[in-house]
UniProtKB/TrEMBL annotation:
<keyword id="KW-0443">Lipid metabolism</keyword>
<dbReference type="GO" id="GO:0005783">
    <property type="term" value="C:endoplasmic reticulum"/>
</dbReference>
<feature type="transmembrane region" description="Helical">
    <location>
        <begin position="32"/>
        <end position="50"/>
    </location>
</feature>
<keyword id="KW-0752">Steroid biosynthesis</keyword>
<keyword id="KW-1133">Transmembrane helix</keyword>
<dbReference type="Pfam" id="PF05241">
    <property type="entry name" value="EBP"/>
</dbReference>
<feature type="transmembrane region" description="Helical">
    <location>
        <begin position="154"/>
        <end position="174"/>
    </location>
</feature>
<dbReference type="GO" id="GO:0000247">
    <property type="term" value="F:C-8 sterol isomerase activity"/>
</dbReference>
<dbReference type="GO" id="GO:0016020">
    <property type="term" value="C:membrane"/>
</dbReference>
<keyword id="KW-0444">Lipid biosynthesis</keyword>
<dbReference type="GO" id="GO:0004769">
    <property type="term" value="F:steroid Delta-isomerase activity"/>
</dbReference>
<feature type="transmembrane region" description="Helical">
    <location>
        <begin position="71"/>
        <end position="93"/>
    </location>
</feature>
<feature type="transmembrane region" description="Helical">
    <location>
        <begin position="130"/>
        <end position="147"/>
    </location>
</feature>
<protein>
    <submittedName>
        <fullName>EBP cholestenol delta-isomerase</fullName>
    </submittedName>
</protein>
<feature type="transmembrane region" description="Helical">
    <location>
        <begin position="189"/>
        <end position="211"/>
    </location>
</feature>
<keyword id="KW-0472">Membrane</keyword>
<keyword id="KW-0413">Isomerase</keyword>
Length: 233
């Protein structure tokens, strides 16, 4: 029997999903995950070293604390993931199922936790495109703003974190409304690690950073208001 495009076997859910032209990965899961976490770790480590240099100081002229250094490292890793990994998806989403480029294989592996990425789902394409071309560059700008002690640093932190939080909430909510049909519900790797854990980070960490930016911007506005009152008195 000749296999039609619609009947090409694949590992994705729902099992009757049609993915014409699908080609299975020839890279192992370990190769793909090792690349992702190694490069992310390199960005984190490099940024950690930079934030510890003598010239790196906060707005009070003091060395960055551990929490601030970790926050800057987070934005550096986000710059890589948004700009490179998600940037690839935003450009090549329509050929990923049949493409054997390394980053396409990365997306085919991740899609075992969310098959919307191998069917050019409208929401994921739009969401990832905005993430790649807005939050990616802005994440790197945020890193620079903190290292250079720019006045806009907490504004950037707030904007990027709000965008990340909004995208992540919609990501989970749209799949919830679909009944979690694009993943093997309850699978320890594909559902809980790929789909839940790797994405819930973009809810938890941005929430913390939003509150942090809110506090600093509120203090700045209070200081400005007091200075204005002193001028008028």
């Amino acid at each position: 029997m000749v296999e039609t495009p619609s009947s090409v076997p694949h590992p994705y859910w729902p099992r009757d999903l049609s993915i014409p032209g699908y080609v299975a990965n020839d890279r192992s899961m370990h190769e793909i995950l090792s690349f992702l976490f190694s490069v992310s770790g390199l960005f984190l480590l490099s940024t950690w070293v930079l934030t510890g240099r003598k010239w790196a100081r906060d707005g009070r002229g003091q060395e960055f604390g551990v929490a601030r250094r970790l926050a800057i490292c987070w934005f550096a890793v986000c710059g890589f993931i948004h700009g490179v990994i998600e940037g690839w998806f935003s450009l090549y989403y329509d050929i990923i199922p049949s493409d054997q480029s390394f980053l396409s294989q990365l997306w085919k592996e991740y899609s075992r936790g969310d098959s919307r990425y191998v069917i050019s789902d409208n929401f994921t394409v739009c969401m990832e495109t905005v993430t790649a071309w807005f939050w990616g560059p802005l994440s790197l700008w945020t890193v620079f703003a903190f290292l250079a002690n720019k006045p806009c640093r907490f504004v950037l932190q707030l904007i990027v974190s709000l965008g990340q939080l909004y995208g992540a909430v919609l990501y989970f909510y749209t799949e919830h409304r679909d009944g979690y049909s694009h993943s093997q519900m309850g699978h320890p790797l594909y559902f809980w690690f790929y789909f839940v854990f790797l994405n819930i980070l973009w809810i938890i960490i941005p929430l913390v950073l939003i509150l942090d930016a809110w506090r600093h911007l509120q203090q700045a506005q209070t200081h400005t208001d007091l200075a204005q009152k002193e001028k008028t008195n």
